[in-house]
Structures are given as C-alpha cells and as structure tokens.
Amino acid sequence: MSLSAVNTKSALLVAMAVAALHGCGGTSTKKDTDPGGGNVPSLEDCITAVGAEAQTRAAAADPMLGAQYYDDMFDKIFVTTGPAETHPLWSAGINNAKSGGETWRCKNCHGWDYQGADGAYGDPTSGNYTGIEGVFGHVDENRNNPANIYCVIAAGNNSAGADHSQLDELVAAGATQAEAEQAMWDITAFLIQKAVDTTTYIAPNGGIYNGDATNGQTLFADAGCNAARCHAADGSVNADDIGLGGIATENPWEFLHKTRFGDTHDPNMPAFETDLVTPLTIQDILDIATYSQASLVGGGQIIQPDGGGGGGGGGGGGGGSGATGVVLGGLLYDNHFEEVGKTTAVNNPLWAAQTTNARTGIDTWRCKECHGWDYKGRDGVYGDTTNSHYTGFSGIYGTRFTSTAELFNYLKFGVRMNINGTSTLVHAFGTNAAGVPLIPGSPALNDTQLQALAEFVLNGLVDTDVYILNTRGQKAAVGNPETGMALYNNTATTGGECIACHGADGKLIDFDDGNPALAPNEFLGTLAVDNPWETLHKIRFGQPNSDMPSTVGKGLSDQAAGDILRYTQDLPTL
User: Could you tell me the CA-to-CA distances from 85 to 82, 97, 103, 104, 174 in Å, in that order?
Assistant: First the structure.
C-alpha cells in the first residue's frame, strides 16, 4: 500500500466543466478524430446524444473505479505513463513544467481536493499550480444532469477552443470506443456520487477539523495499516520518501482520496471505503490522517486548522428556549438569531446570488427563508416565482449529506462559491478559534448549536405533503380534527398544551402586533389557514427563544402534530 507524495504525476482535466459548460461556443460540428480514431462529437452533440440514457449510464457506472481514473486513468487502464504529447489544454497559458502523460491526470489540474485554483493547488508559487478551476462546484450544480458532466469530460471544449476530450487519446492508447466511453461514465459516477466538498473536512493549511488522533490510532491498527507489508507501525513503509505522517501533513487531501478509493499505482492497497470488513467513513479516515500527522514518520504534530478548527466556537449552551438536540435544531432553522439572542444588519453573502427576494439583514440568514417551511426550497411552496420569498435556492429535504459529522463541518466552515465573479465563503455559521465569526454578520453558532442544526436536518424533517394537501392552492391539512382538538385542549405533558397560551379560540396571541384588540390581527387560526407549513413546523419544534412546547420534544408523533394542525385550521381567523 502506498500513498504517493504531494507532487505525484499530473492531469486528466476532468472538469474544465466550467469552461465547457459556460463557454463552449455552441458549435455542433463533429470534431476531427485524433490518431486513435475515437469518435468525438462536439459538446452540444454529445449532450443531445446521451441525454436519454445519461441517468441510467451514470447510475450503472463504477464510482470507485472512476476515482482511480481521476488519479491516473492511463496508468490504471494500460499501466503506462500516458500519452507522450502534452494535453492541449496544458499549453493554454499554464505556467506548470509538467509535460506528456503527467498533463492528462485529472488531479493535476483540479487537485486532490477537487477545488483547483480555489484550493490547495491555488498557490501560484507551487509546482502544482495551473490556474485551472476545480470540479466540485460545477459537479454540485449538475448532479442531476450527468450528461453535462460526461460530455465535458468526453468531448468538451474550453472557452479558448482547446480540446478537452479524453476519448480519442484512450482509443489511441488501445482502448475500444466502448471501453473509452465506459471510463468516462465511471469518472462521471465518481464525481456525482463520491466527490465531496473537502473544505468541510480540511482547512486551507491542512489542519483537519474535528480529527480524533486516538480513534485514528485504533483504526490504523484495526485496518492492518501497521502490518510490515503495508505501512509498518511507524508509517515508514510504502509512503514514498517522506513517511505516512509526511503525506498526511503535506497533503491530507491526497491522503483522504487514496485512502477512500485506493492507490491507482499500487493494486495492493485497498479502498477503505469499500474493501475492508468494516468499511471506514470519511471521518474515520481523517482520524487516521490526524493520528498520522501526530505520530508517524514524517509527521510529529497535529496541524491545528486555520479559520476555526475542530474546537472553534467551543461547546457552549443551546439557545434561549432551553431546548436541546433536534428540537434546538428546528428552532435554529426557524430563526437562529432570535434563538441565540443576537442581531445583525448585514446580509448573508449568499443573498447576492439571487435577485428576487428583497429581504435584508436577519431574514437573509434564516434557513427557512431559502429552504422554506416545507424544506423543499424551489421545489416546494417557495418555488412560485411570484412569491416574495422566492430565491431559487434548493431545498434540504432529501439532503445529500449522510452523517451529522459531515453536515456539522459544512454548517460550521461553509464552502466557497463563485458569486458574481468573486469566490465567496457561504454557509459558514461557525467561528474561528478566537470566537470571531467566519463570515461577518453571521449568527456565530457554537458547536452545540451547529450539532443540533445538523441533527435536525438529518433526523427532524418530515415530508409535509403527508400532512398538507397543496394542490390548486388549497393549503388543506389532512389530519384528524377530533384528535387534534383533544390534543390542543390537553394541558398535560401527554397533550399539546396549546389552549393554555392560545386560548380555546386561538385568539389570545396576535402574531401581527401582539395586541388582539387592535386590528388587523393574525391569530393561530389565521396562520394555520394562510401558512400551514409554518404552523406545522412550530407545532413540532416551538417558537425560538420562548417556552412554547414542542410535540417532538414531548415525544408526540408527527401525526399528532398533523392532527393539531388540522384542528387549528377550524379556529377563527378574525
């Protein structure tokens, strides 16, 4: 098993996706084939041709194999160093001395972190610098459009007209047309299914967020990494000339990629994500990397993440409501500023990516303002372009995140995206080690609050269509009103306790101005009829920074919350 060092071979250019998708020039003329005779259509023709089968082909492809192709496709397929000629994109103003087969490796343009010029390869003084952008952001935008990703790899041109196609070179090296196309689909599957936003795990300086060296030491031994035939107990074997600790210290992004997917240049190294008896998670692998930084040859100390680190923001308490766990997360989703007792006049930087929602300040930071009370964003109630809440942002129901640790890092440290031509940090709700918000004006949530928000997103969402009929603008709750009435009027811990605050007719609290005697009014019945999605959310989780009971906190079922909602729609609206 070996993890190659920082400056191992160079570039297959998998996602000049940007250049191809945004600046391909629109030509539909077939391109001449290169010596191998590969049939390489234009980008436009390719997308048209594969569109109908793209979803099926991408789903059937092998993402683990695609990950090794991303490392070094020619070596993996043909056990060669790749084409003798330098990739045509490499000569387009790239100040990088690599040539020949090195220039055909994806990772040498887009990096082990998939961020290209915005990531670890973004230092112009580095021997790995090309200035080419990364793949992650563009893949993230096209996860539901695999034809766009496949065709950029297989046939795309960049804005300067340089050929990005890999098909003809694979055929020239001896692959059949079908084999070459399958390799492109395998890379597509890797990018869609397995490429992650590494900025949520690893800081720009190589520090690992929330790394656990003690757990890493245990996993290092359990996975057999300490065996003499692998890396040995001190990490000195099969680790180039710098030791495993050196690789984890100098290039933790490469460490993560190769440990997840195996080493293209060493067939004996397993893919820890699939080949072990007990497959490891990304966080497990990063714990091993943390241990390697601290204790193995080439390491010596754990790199403390800049921009925050695993302890940035600290543990701290929950919020003003006193709620914890998923209930606290639901309150923070509603309005984290209100729940934690803070305020801001600064707009969320993400707000500049849309022009339809005119709200400012705190409202621009509220999760619900982007993703909706139904959690479906543009695919739900807020998808109506005439709605003042419309932003065009996606929802979180059915999120791609699979673990609270992964989502925690995303919520804490955010991600960079291109907004109006500027690389902008967004979605970072945490702080650095000094407690300073990573984004000025953000709610600066502590780790307890961020963990709760992650738990809510992964474990607290419901499909609101089960409880609310949203056809032809009906907004009709579909629960049982009799059961709902009994729960509404039940002041015991087994009930909703609603009557105690809202009164029998739901008119004791006026959400409009707090004065039921002063019109206009917005009573509980008014809100339930007008916005049953908001009402259901608040029935389940309560009102931020208040003592409003939560059905989730009480252990009542989601159906019970739906029944209460149905009953409240029968209450007076005036």
Answer: 9, 14, 9, 10, 16
